[in-house]
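Schema walk-through. Below, the input block comes first and the output block second. Nothing else is stored per chain. Lengths vary across the set, and this one has 182 residues.
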Amino acid sequence: MLLLLAIQVQDFPLPNIVDILKLGMSDKGTKRQPSTAGKGDERMKLKNFSGLVLSVLLVIGVVLVSGCATNAAKTQNITTQEAHSLVQENTSNPDFVILDVRTQEEFDGGHLENAINLDFNSPTFRADLDKLNKQKTYLVYCLSGGRSSNAVTIMEELRFTKVYNMLNGILGWGVAGLPTVK
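--- output ---
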């Protein structure tokens, strides 16, 4: 189809090209003759052909766009209080993961209960993230929100489906008087 459009752009008469392409073997094994239809029929064929090309391109575009949309990650920045509520609502949910992206030393100094630790500064951080189940729901935090925000961006690229970034990090958690564990 694109070849036909390119040929038309070069001022070749499209109906003659279409007639040439129609040559071939009929059901009985004999060659078909080029069409001898009038110019009105050629214009109608061209109009129908153009409509078909546009329809096919539209369908391809819709499929590509909808395919991208279904793979998009759902990420959201949430406050400390919203994060606390999310943790409380998911205490027994095996598909909910609290992800601390601080260093191991920071993590050892105090973290949210049941959190797992992946150091954002580790050279293997992206590969370690990629090993996690992308269908689970993640609450991501760091010290103040910078590293977790960057981690969430990487998680979007890796096609995680549902990720929450806790704004203000564990500092905000502590200011709100919420508990941590060591």
